[in-house]
């Protein structure tokens, strides 16, 4: 796909970004959006031009930040080299897979996130709560999109189960293979709007991209033994919809590890936190203490024990991951101070 015919408004440029530019940048810089992220390059698009650069890192708001799909960069108008990364209106991130203690960027400047699951064995409330917590932390409105509704005899039951996870949560049932899915999701897909797709492999995410945008994403069949599919997406990218919206497609994530997502978790489990606030003791651990409102709700059936266990698991995971990230930053700051002291001592000996 070529991007040379699009205006900045087509690409999602809004006053939120334009007000970040000073007079010099307005006159001598070109805004460009990251349309795709590959291992060795970024594909950018600006007003009637496209460009490729190596992965870009810049000092944004005092912190080192790597550009990700959906970001806006300022390019020098003369040589089109990146000058800086603009502040984001929203950012999805997670703790990176593996043993490394670091955050991985997923998508930036998202207006709406479609949390994709399916009406089969892959439907998992705990996994959905993780995605909803991530959306809440990013400050982006989530819409749960349940695929394979045409293959299920109780699609409404799946939709009701998803809606119970968060008050006011919007849930849509679609057949991902049917182009009419675009009509169902049209309210969130206006010109220049940006929507993200999050969901595990096998739920029909790439198939939904095919139906909505004709993007030609490679898809593979569902394994009949566990109703899960093989991971097929190879790069984070933006796809233009016929409505003029931009659809993010991100690699499937079986294990979404949260970090620094306390506000998002609190939003998803606001019912439990409201109960906890009514406990007799402020430090109640909800483990049998007298006057525990959480225990009373469990006993009366007002609170599902499984939901309480999921909240505890997510809260503990987030706390541990956030602590690990803070410890790593402290070690890095300590190493940086030591390195600067060593270099200063070397200069002093050399100049002395």
Automatic annotation (TrEMBL):
Keyword check for RNA-binding: yes
The listed locations are: Cytoplasm
List the cofactors: Zn(2+)
The record ties this protein, via PROSITE patterns, to:
ENGC_GTPASE, G_CP
Would the keyword Hydrolase turn up in this protein's UniProt record?
A: yes
Co-factor binding details: Binds 1 zinc ion per subunit.
Which CDD domains does its entry note? YjeQ_EngC
Q: Which SUPFAM superfamilies match?
A: P-loop containing nucleoside triphosphate hydrolases (SSF52540)
> EC class of this enzyme?
hydrolase
Q: What is this protein called?
A: Small ribosomal subunit biogenesis GTPase RsgA
Q: Lineage, please?
A: Bacteria, Pseudomonadati, Pseudomonadota, Gammaproteobacteria, Lysobacterales
């Amino acid at each position: 796909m070529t991007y040379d015919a699009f205006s900045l408004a087509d690409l999602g440029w809004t006053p939120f970004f334009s007000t970040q530019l000073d007079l010099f940048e307005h006159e001598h810089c070109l805004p460009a959006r990251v349309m795709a992220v590959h291992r060795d390059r970024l594909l950018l698009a600006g007003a009637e031009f496209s460009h490729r650069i190596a992965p870009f890192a810049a000092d944004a708001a005092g912190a080192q930040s790597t550009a990700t799909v959906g970001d806006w960069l300022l390019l020098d108008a003369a040589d089109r080299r990146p000058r800086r990364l603009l502040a984001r209106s929203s950012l999805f991130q997670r703790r990176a897979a593996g043993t490394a203690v670091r955050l991985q960027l997923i998508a930036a400047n998202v207006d709406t996130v479609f949390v994709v699951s399916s009406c089969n064995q892959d439907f998992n409330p705990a996994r959905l709560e993780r995605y909803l917590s991530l959306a809440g932390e990013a400050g982006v409105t989530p819409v749960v999109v349940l695929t394979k509704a045409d293959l299920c005899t109780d699609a409404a039951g799946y939709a009701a189960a998803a809606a119970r996870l968060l008050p006011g949560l919007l849930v849509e049932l679609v057949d991902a293979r049917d182009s009419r899915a675009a009509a169902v999701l049209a309210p969130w897909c206006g010109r220049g709007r940006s929507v993200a797709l999050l969901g595990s492999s096998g739920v029909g995410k790439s198939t939904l991209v095919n139906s909505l945008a004709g993007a030609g994403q490679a898809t593979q069949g569902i394994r009949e033994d566990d109703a899960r599919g093989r991971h097929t997406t190879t790069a984070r990218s933006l796809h233009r919809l016929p409505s003029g919206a931009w659809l993010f497609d991100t690699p499937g994530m079986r294990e979404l590890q949260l970090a620094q997502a306390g506000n998002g978790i609190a939003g998803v489990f606001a019912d439990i936190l409201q109960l906890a606030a009514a406990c007799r003791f402020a430090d109640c651990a909800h483990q049998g203490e007298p006057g525990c409102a959480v225990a009373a709700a469990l006993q009366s059936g007002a609170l599902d024990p499984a939901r309480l266990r999921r909240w505890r698991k997510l809260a503990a995971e987030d706390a541990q991951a956030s602590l690990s990230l803070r410890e790593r930053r402290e070690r890095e700051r300590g190493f940086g101070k030591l390195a600067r002291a060593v270099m200063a001592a070397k200069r002093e000996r050399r100049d002395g």
